[in-house]
Design a protein that fits this description.
Blueprint (H helix, E strand, L loop, with lengths): L3 E6 L3 H12 L4 E7 L3 H11 L2 E2 L3 H6 L5 E4 L6 H10 L4 E3 L7 H14 L4 E3 L7 H11 L6 E9 L9 H8 L1 H11 L3 E7 L13 E7 L4 E7 L7 E8 L2 E4 L8 E3 L2 E3 L6 H4 L1 H17 L5 E2 H20 L3 E2 L11
Helix pairs in contact: 4-5, 5-11, 6-8, 7-11, 8-11
């Protein structure tokens, strides 16, 4: 196989963006088909990119001219589609979350273990962001000494109407839960959550402040504020015994106008992580060709869900909650 022929299920915001990146050119990959429950939407994207529109997801997964599948459909469909791809023996990149329930995530783990090979990657694209990669490399170098604190900020301009206080934890904070495990290279063992009052701009949901602790004692704090108004803003600083390393939020240009000196804040996550999404696709397709998977595994997706489960329990009870730590199958070690 000289290139991986990709089919995308779901052509909403994320599916359309992935399709555009693939059509623009990704090493080792070629977009060949898209599918959506709204066939008209899929047909429009297919026509604009010169690929096929397929009527249903099962037909796309079983198509002999498609080597790998991306699942960008609504969260509740992720598990069933991932299981079908595993059954077909095809690599599948599933947008986060891995599944809508822990039971469904566990079914994916069992199916992949039974298949005897890693076929699932979860779309935690921050692992491919240059800033986070450099943070991990700085820690691994030993120059900074032992990690003590990881400070994280996750802000959106305006959250969607369906977003609740619970989903701020269960969905929005999922990226931070994964990136903390990635940067620190260990499991999170406990969670505490504190909630300030809801804001006047979003009276039906609260911002959340999450405090996690890892197996070695590193403290991770996460501010999740989905209605910050000014734009999309992600920050991280790793504080160690002998120094710190932090993300640089500044883009390549500075704007000076009308009494302001600074840079524009992106409206959402896509401009901020544009290069990370491309790097993720390049690594995924290279792994398909070399049979060496990279990125977040199904196990990583499952562990992120277990961390958010503990956070939800802590939020509801007001107490520290332990994170379940099941035995990791040898496939993921």
């Amino acid at each position: 196989m000289k290139e991986a022929r990709i089919g995308i299920i779901g052509t909403g915001v994320m599916g359309a963006d992935h399709a555009a990146i693939l059509a623009d050119g990704v090493a080792n990959a070629r977009l060949v088909a898209v599918q959506d429950f709204d066939l008209g939407r899929a047909e429009n994207i297919a026509a604009s990119l010169g690929v096929r529109a397929i009527a249903n997801a099962d037909a796309l997964i079983s198509d002999p001219d498609i080597d790998a599948v991306m699942v960008c459909s609504p969260d509740g469909t992720h598990a069933a589609l991932a299981l079908r791809a595993i059954a077909a023996g095809k690599p599948v990149l599933v947008e986060k979350p891995l599944a809508a329930s822990l039971e469904d995530a566990e079914a994916i783990i069992r199916a992949e273990v039974a298949a005897g090979k890693r076929l699932v990657q979860v779309g935690f694209m921050r692992r491919f962001d240059a800033g986070y990669v450099e943070m991990k490399q700085a820690l691994a170098s030993g120059e900074l000494g032992r990690p003590l604190f990881l400070h994280c900020v996750h802000r959106n301009a305006v959250g969607p109407d369906y977003l609740t206080s619970e989903l701020v934890i269960a969905n929005s904070a999922g990226h931070e839960c994964d990136i903390a495990r990635y940067l620190l290279g260990e499991e999170i063992t406990s969670a505490i959550v504190a909630s300030p009052p809801a804001t006047r701009n979003a009276p039906n949901r609260q911002p959340q402040f999450i405090l996690l602790q890892t197996a070695s004692g590193v403290v991770v704090d996460i501010e999740v504020f989905t209605d910050a108004q000014y734009g999309y803003d992600v920050r991280a600083e790793l504080v160690c015994e002998d120094g710190t390393v932090a993300l640089d939020p500044s883009p390549a240009t500075t704007l000076r106008a009308k009494g302001h000196d600074g840079f524009r804040t992106p409206a959402d996550w896509r401009p901020r992580f544009r290069q990370a999404y491309r790097a993720q696709l390049e690594a995924w397709t290279a792994g398909i060709l070399t049979r060496t998977p990279s990125g977040s595994s199904a196990w990583d997706g499952y562990m992120a869900m277990l961390v958010t489960k503990a956070c939800l329990h802590a939020w509801k009870t007001g107490n520290r909650a332990a994170v379940e730590l099941p035995e990791k199958p040898s496939l993921y070690r």
